[in-house]
Amino acid sequence: MTYDNIACAVFIDRPNRFIARVEMEGKIETVHVKNTGRCKELLLPGAEVWLTASHTPSRKTGYDLVAVRKSSGILFNIDSQAPNKAAYEWLKEQAFDKIVPEYAFGDSRIDFYMERGGIRWLMEVKGCTLEIDGIGYFPDAPTERGVKHIRELTKAREKGYRACLAFVIQMDGVTEVRANVRTHAAFGAVLDEARSAGVQVLSLPCHVEPDKLEILPGMEVQ
Prior knowledge:
CATH 2.40.50.580, 2 domains, five-stranded mixed β-barrel
């Protein structure tokens, strides 16, 4: 997926999880952060960040912060909506007969329902923005919603669906995502249960540019 406009700025601070202050062309701008996770190791004073302009005149913030370059030099996409958009483009390349986003199942909405050759799939997508020593970790903050979604995938598997949890890695050079049990032990526990129940868990490597997040070829939903 690509952004139709992009601008570079310098990160100053993040007063709360929804907004940040940046310096752009000599001016201080308050911008919307498109990620409610902590991102503490990424959003540091002086970091190079990228913004997209909002097309909604009534909004209080004119820009969305979507990418940041870590002190290591690696570029991260931190837009929480980008993984689903990239996953949808990736799924369309896999010759499914039907792809339905935001599919109601149980008490949740699962990111994608797919059909191919009479087989039904459910797939939940999670974006990974936490990297430690070349390994991706999820989540970077406790996520009861994430736990609930994995339990729904396990139920779907029991009802005859094929089920998949896909981690979209929002940085270059990382090929594996592990459960961040130090941050949320319950997430790791339900992930292990899901694997044992036959839920496919995919780590999807990506290529990131300031205006792009693209899943690399080579992985498929099975």
